[in-house]
Amino acid sequence: MTAEETISAGVQVTLLIAFICVRSSSVWTDYSAYSYFEVVTLCDLIMILAFYLVHLFRIHRVLTCISWPLSELLHYLIGTLLLLVASIVAASKSYSQSGLVAGAIFGFVATFLCMVSVWLSYKISCVPQAADGPPGKSSIQMVSSSPKWAEAASPGASVRHPHPDTNGRARVPEAAPGRTDQ
């Protein structure tokens, strides 16, 4: 399991526990606040399960018209904000009822895990991924600074440098040092 799948499973478990704690509480001090908490936890739980099934059955490979990382990022952003508001409201209206306090605490834990998921989704979908190689170098820098690029060409073939010279023409690099077969 990857870190994202582990966190997603943790969010699902904590949301389920929060829902059960609030639902099984015998005394509700504010019906509308806890109904809102139940709706938010259930909707968030269903959406996380839907994204989990999309990745499990590889539906994201079939439906390529949807940007799945971006949609997952938006889901986690909206769900995290709604869950944070619901947890704050549930905590403020609990009046020391143990089931309601436990539900609010698990709501805050699920909010924290959702924030971690938002960060991971942002890292995956919005931050450009670097190519393999030393940190701090882009793939173009690595290709152009590699000492083996001239040796990879067959003898007599011209290797074009990706950057043009001042006249707009592509530069043909000089032969590698030590090579005399031109």
TrEMBL record:
Pfam families: MARVEL. Residues 138-147 have a biased composition (Polar residues). InterPro entries: Marvel, MARVEL-CKLF_proteins. GO terms for cellular component: membrane. The keyword Membrane applies. It comes from the Eukaryota. PANTHER family: CKLF-LIKE MARVEL TRANSMEMBRANE DOMAIN-CONTAINING PROTEIN 7, MARVEL-CONTAINING POTENTIAL LIPID RAFT-ASSOCIATED PROTEIN. This is CKLF-like MARVEL transmembrane domain-containing protein 7. It comes from Tupaia chinensis (Chinese tree shrew).
